[in-house]
Amino acid sequence: MIRQPVLKGQLLELRPLRAEDFPDLYAVASDPLIWEQHPHNTRYQEGVFKKFFSDALASGGALIAIDSETGRVIGSSRYDGYNQEKSQVEIGWTFLARSHWGGIYNGEMKRLMLEHAFKFVKNVVFVIGIQNFRSQKAVEKLGAVRVGSTVDSGGADCFVYHLERNGVTGQVATRTATEQ
Q1: How far apart are CA 160 and CA 162, in angstroms?
Q2: Nearest to 95 by CA among 140, 156, 41
Q3: pLDDT, tens digit, for every residue of 146-178?
């Protein structure tokens, strides 16, 4: 699976994250309200974000989100945990500037990422903190179904959501951003 594609929609472009993106991405991530429901809610702190950013670069699946109209960085997301045997990949570590909250940008980001992922896999999973109600609601809008729980690499309790390419949920992934 190609985990760092360039994906273009009407509202945003996703491209591979690069080391020189740190200042622009941290300018977005430094807003504490972005992280208030997240299990690792101190990522707005520069030292904590540097670790997150370094891990994103090392993952080989991180994408930066750029507003197509303004050319400004508005957030990021990532593919990880690709498993060829299970025909599965995880989409996560997503955050957006609060100026771009409200569904249409996240909806387009996830639609682009899902359409790309479903060219290679049958299953996409999302691992979301149990108190992260905004993200839970967002993936449910895409048609993802909660299938269980887990503990993430940082020790936080999380729910696992699943979206399947050939099921009803997989068809939801092909909606346009305005339908989200």
Answers
A1: 7
A2: 41
A3: 999 999 888 889 999 999 987 544 443 333 333
The token duo for 177 is 């951003």
Q: Which is it for the CA torsion 38, 40, 46, 52, positive or negative?
A: negative
* DSSP sequence for 22-66: HHHHHHHHT-GGGGTTSSSTTTTSHHHHHHHHHHHHHHT-EEEEE
Tokens of 147: 């299938």
How many Cα atoms within 13 Å fall on the side-chain side of residue 11?
18
- Provide the CB-side half-sphere exposure for 88 (13 A, CA): 12
The pTM for the full model equals: 0.89
Which phi and psi angles does 78 have, rounded to 5°?
Answer: -155, 150
Which residues make Cβ contacts (< 8 Å) with residue 105, sequence separation at least 6?
A: 11, 12, 65, 67, 74, 96, 177
